[in-house]
Amino acid sequence: MIHKNVDQAKKASSCSSKTPQNDADKQRMEMDAMIKDNLARIKHKFFVLSGKGGVGKSSVSANLAATLAKKGYKTGLMDVDVHGPSIAQMFNITELLDIAPDTKQLLPRRINENLTVVSVQALMQDKDQAVIWRGPAKTGIIKQFVGSVAWGNLDFLVIDAPPGTGDEPLTVVQTIPDARGIIVTTPQEVALADVRKSISFCKTVKMQTLGIIENMAGYTCPHCNKHIDLFKSGGGEKTAKAQGLNFLGSIPFDTRVVESGDDGVPVMMYEAPGPFKDAFEKVVENILKQIEV
Q1: pTM recorded for the entire structure
Q2: Main role (predicted)?
């Protein structure tokens, strides 16, 4: 009798331990299905990455999305820089994201007719609170942003991830296997050393790389019109050639980019032309030449 009761207890324990596992498996399957459905409705995915911080990756992401939208393409911008999100500031997103009452999906913030944005910062009540998350939590939020956001039908999804080759970039690649990389660097050697690691990352995970953008390549003095190489010049193009990648173009330093970021309107949404805007248009043209829109 004792042995029988022990056996029954073991069976009951086994059944109860399987329930949470089954629930977790069910949730994973549901999320995977949602991710697959959302990705099927997005034609092109651009993953903007950099080897180190401070090279203007988020600024490039914001202005790339703004430019594509201005050209008439339905564009989404996804900011998954968990520890240092800046996209919300660049688009003046100050309120929490809404939830669709029928589907319970997150609604991306609509900037204009063609552009929608989602940022980690738009999920936080306190914008100054530090996000102290380990790998699994960061992986989960990225998958949520892909599967649980009502992106709808998009021509482009631009993904802005933190610099480096850690949890977030790896999760993006694993979740969005057809994403294509756009690497951002500045011309000086300390940045180029890190960008070569980004190139190695792309090759290791077998992600197609569209090319390298050299940001903050120079500055024209507004008073004397003299060109100044703030961080040297030509390093991005040299690295692209050495690595067998396309060089997408050089973008000059422009104080209006800083001002527009603080004002919540990316500079590419302005009507007035300028060195940055002209150079950025050429970069976008070089990107679009490589794909079938």
Answers
A1: 0.86
A2: Binds and transfers iron-sulfur (Fe-S) clusters to target apoproteins. Can hydrolyze ATP.
